[in-house]
Amino acid sequence: MSELFDAIDALVASRAPLPPPEERRRLRKAHGLTVDEVAKALRVRRATVSGWESGKTDPRPPERDAYARLLGKLAELYPAEPPGPSESLETSGAEAAAAPPGATVGVHPQEPSAGGAPASAPSAPAPQASPGPQPDRGAGSSAALTARSRPSAPASTPAEVRPAQALSPTAESVPGRTVSQSSTPRRPAAGRTVPAGDDPRFENGPLAVLDVEDGQVLAYCAGGLILDVPAKTLPALVDWTLKEARLGQPRLSGPGKDADPLLVLSEAACRRYGLPTHLTDEERLAGRLPESHKVVRQLARTGWKLTRRGFGPWARIYRPAQGSTRNCVQLCIPSWNALDTRHWADAAQLPPADLARLLGTYAARVMTPRGSTAVTGLELMTALHPPTRASEPDETGKRHSEPNPGSLGQDPVDCAPCEAPDGHPLLADLPRFHRRTPAEVLREEAYDWARPLTDEECTLRYLVGIDVNMAFAAGANGLVVGLGAPTHVKRPEFDPKLPGSWLVDLSHVDLSRVKLGKEWVNLDANLLPSPFSPTGERPEGPAWYATPTVAYAVELGYDVRPVEAYVRYDNGRYLDAWYNRLRDAYVATMGDLGVAATARPEEFLASMEGYKDRDPGMAILVSAIKATVKGGIGKLRERPRGEGWKPGQPWRALSRPTWRPDIRAAIISRTRINMHRKILKHASFTGRYPVAILSDCAVYAAEGPSPLDFLPYREGKPLPGGWRLGVSPGMVKHEGTQTVLWGEGVRERFDAPELNLARYIKTGEVTNEDDGE
């Protein structure tokens, strides 16, 4: 009889209803299981389990019984809980609800600017995008409850299922399926997933990488989701992206604009949509396809427009905005060198899922890429401080666009003549071959300085290089910069709180006796670089300096008497939010690589050994974040590139409000001064002086090969105000170690006793003999 009862139980179980697809997925995720783990246990394909969870198929015996048993066990462990009365339910009208009465939400100009973000019309605040890793949306969390409370997507919408968000997806194609999931055979690591946004408009994340498999175009999204792409032409692809893909990213600042969806096209996707897989030499030099190309003409026939940059590696395709709806899609084409190998390494060669994960993490922590890392770094400044905002209601109750306090505004401003680079229109009257003197031009640049070793240093065994983490980002932190045009002042009183450029004679500052804090100390000035020039040479007379440089002379205990100045009374800490976001992105990514911000000095040095090999994708991300910092600062004084430009004529970058050479100068000035301050502190305490400095790297002679052999730590605590080992911006890491014999040998080889050894300290290889001349 027991066998008969068992048969009856099995028969009943085989017809018992299974939980709905959403509940199946919730239960699996609540237990931290991946689709692959479930598929392996049930001895079915991953795509089969995906189909069960999407509702496209139902399990059949014998797998159905086992699957039902699994769901039953999980339901006992994780019973469904309805949202509590205090939990807000996110809807597609959340943005409109957040807007003040009468506000116009998300109004944007008709054409995006060629170089980046156009000035936006007033719009309502949107949820702030997190600068760092997001929590995994497992069952039981408020985020999970919010997601489950959203209205169901229409059946025709491809993005109707939220998959598991694996850290390193390597998805396989599932022809005929609307969605698929990551094939990574491990659970998502807490805090390291790449979640899609909570905004239902962008629930599939900021971007997708398109590839073609078995004749089907697939869109690999940042969270591991894969969408079928039905579009057969590029115009249809743009339509699908805007109407169905649910891609994009919420604005980073209330008055700003949402990021446009980004599509990354593989070579196979390029061929599918009629684009070349590589540009010709002529097209590469022009930076775009010719207007006569069939795809460009196809876009024009269907009403789509291109920005002034045309159809290049980072193309923007748009139609004029209609009300609050922005119609713009950006394309990234890696095979056209959109992802520069100097900053993105071999990212262009990654499988689609891995590339989506990499770019998606960059978007979540920095922003959706808007072009090169340099362009994105500059665009991030604007995204965090948009030029306009919505005004208070007028007498009719309407709101208007008004300048946003703390921003650089909508219109470019002229720089001071001393801040203008050679060839600028302000210098058009100078003789053709005139070489400007320090009293005519502001030259705030990073260090490139070195000196011969002393006899005592030659008795030591090693040369040890230390490198300042995110040095230029740290230089921007808390920096007061000008927001508007300069005012010319004759014989001004120096004000260290007033940003600007100052013509002043600092040749009287003697580094052999300086004031550190409240005490005067004696130092060997022959072993120190001057803080007032990038070459480390002592100034010989009046020269132009940014405010941080002049303020440092006062800090060292010396009087300054400027002859004239260009100051900016409208000023503020414009770069703080930019710094904070990039700092968080860098520290979070280094944490992913096993380098903790709280590590003690010995632990930090150990964790840095081989850190790039732990996760090559995150190592690429670190490089891209650092390039975003340096490139963004460099773009503040972008020089003409091609364009048929001639000296004395304006170039395209001058039309941007973010073309601000004075801000770049102030950042570099402060970065160099920060290094010099630490050098003096270290020298006064230890008697040790650097032998070479290159940008953010300093080299010291030491008895041992480790930075701990010359950095003064006591009970794990560093010298206050001196060098400090750690991962945060402004702290230092080990750059490299070579022997003193190596250094002397290289200098003797090139007959250059002051060859900058910091340039080669990392690997010890001198790759270009010209560097030694």
Short overview:
With 773 residues, the chain is α+β, with helices and mostly antiparallel strands. Helix content is 29%, strand content 14%. Among the domains are: 2-77, 434 Repressor (Amino-terminal Domain), CATH 1.10.260; 158-371, no CATH class.
Chain-wise SSE layout:
Layout lengths: L1 H14 L5 H10 L4 H8 L3 H9 L8 H15 L16 H5 L43 H7 L30 E2 L26 E7 L2 E6 L4 E4 L4 H10 L18 E4 L1 H6 L8 H6 L7 H8 L3 E2 L7 E9 L2 E8 L8 H4 L7 H14 L7 H12 L3 E3 L10 E3 L44 E3 L4 H4 L3 E7 L2 H6 L4 E2 L4 E4 L9 E6 L7 E4 L2 E4 L19 E5 H9 L8 E4 L3 E2 L3 H17 L8 H8 L7 H20 L25 H26 L5 E3 L2 E6 L10 E2 L2 E2 L13 E8 H10 L24
Parallel strand pairs: 2-5, 5-8
Antiparallel strand pairs: 1-4, 2-3, 3-4, 6-7, 7-8, 9-10, 11-21, 12-22, 12-25, 13-20, 14-19, 15-18, 15-19, 16-17, 21-22, 23-24
Helix pairs in contact: 3-4, 13-20, 14-20, 17-21, 18-20
Descriptive notes:
By secondary structure, the protein is of the alpha+beta class. Among the domains are: 2-77, 434 Repressor (Amino-terminal Domain) (Orthogonal Bundle), CATH 1.10.260; 158-371, no CATH class. It has 22 helices and 25 strands. Strands 1-4-3-2-5-8-7-6 form an eight-stranded mixed β-sheet. The chain has a five-stranded antiparallel β-sheet with strand order 11-21-22-12-25. It has a four-stranded antiparallel β-sheet with strand order 14-19-15-18. Helix 3 crosses helix 4 (46-54), helix 14 crosses helix 20 and helix 17 runs parallel beside helix 21. The protein is globular and about 100 Å long. The protein starts with a helix and ends in a 24-residue tail after the last helix.
